[in-house]
Amino acid sequence: MKDMDNLINKEKIEKGNRKAIKFIVMLFLVYIIFSQGNLLMNSVMSTGGSHYDKYLAEHFNYIQGLKNALIKPSVWIIKAFGFYAIHNETDVLIVNGPLLRINYSCLGLGVMSFLAAFVLSFPTGWKETIKMLIFGIFIIYLLNVFRIAGLGLLFGFFQSQRYYFDYHHEIFNVLVYIVVFVMLYNWAKKNTRSISNAHFFFTKSKIE
Fold it and tell me: Does residue 170 belong to any structural domain of this protein?
C-alpha cells in the first residue's frame, strides 16, 4: 500500500510538472500572438501606418471601435459631474479643462492579451475559461472607462495636477494591473482546487 501511495505521489508530481511547463510555454506563445497581433492590426488600421490597408481600416477597424467604446461612456461620466465635454474619434476635450488623447496604449489591449493568454493556457474546463475571458475583459474595459473619466475629472477639478499627468496616468495603470492580477490569482486558485479534488476522486476510484 505504501509503495502504491509513493507511486501515486510520484505520478502526481510528474503530471504537475508537465502541466506547469505546458502552461508557461502556452502562456508565452499565446501572449506574443495576441499582443503582437494587435500591434500589427493597429498599424493596418492606422492611416500612415507601415501596414495600412484602407479596406480593412474602413470595414474591420476594431481598434477605433474600442476607442469609441471607451470615449463615449467616459464623456457621459464627465458630463454627469457638471463638466461640458466634447469628443472626436481620438480626443476628449473638457471645456475649461484638459484635453485627453486616447491612443493605442490607452486601450488596455496589452493587459487584455495577458489575461486572455493566461486564461486560455490554464488547465481547466472550457466553461470556466469562457466565463473568465468574458468577465475579465469586461472588467478591464470598465476600469479603462473609469480611468479615462477619472483623469478628466481630476484635472478638471484640480488644474494644478495637470502638470503631473504622467504620474497620475501611471498610478491608474498600476491599479488596473493590481486588480487584474488579484482577479487571475483568485480564479486560478479556485480552479486549481477544483482540478485537485477531481483528480483525487478519480485516483481513489481507481484504487477502490
Answer: yes
What residue numbers bound the domain in which 137 lies? 62-207
CB 16 within 8 Å of CB 98:
no
pLDDT digits (tens, 9 = 90+) for 91-109: 999 888 888 889 888 888 9
CA pair distance 93, 71, nearest whole angstrom: 11
| Cα distance between residue 121 and residue 20, in whole Å | 10
Whether the CB-CB separation of 145 and 74 falls below 8 Å is answered with yes
Phi, psi of 14 (to 5 degrees): -65, -40
How many structural domains are present in the chain? 1
Q: Note the pLDDT tens digit of each residue in 195-204.
A: 454 443 334 4
Please report whether residue 46 resides in a domain: no
For residue 16, give the amino acid letter.
Answer: G
Q: Would the pLDDT of 5 be above 80?
A: no
List beta partners, residue 100.
92
Domain assignment present for 183: yes
143: its cell numbers: 476600469
Sign of CA dihedral 127, 133, 134, 136: positive
Rounded to the nearest integer, the mean pLDDT of the chain is: 83
Is position 85 within any domain? yes
- Percentage with pLDDT > 70 across the chain: 80
> Is 146 within 8 Å of 108 (Cβ atoms)?
no
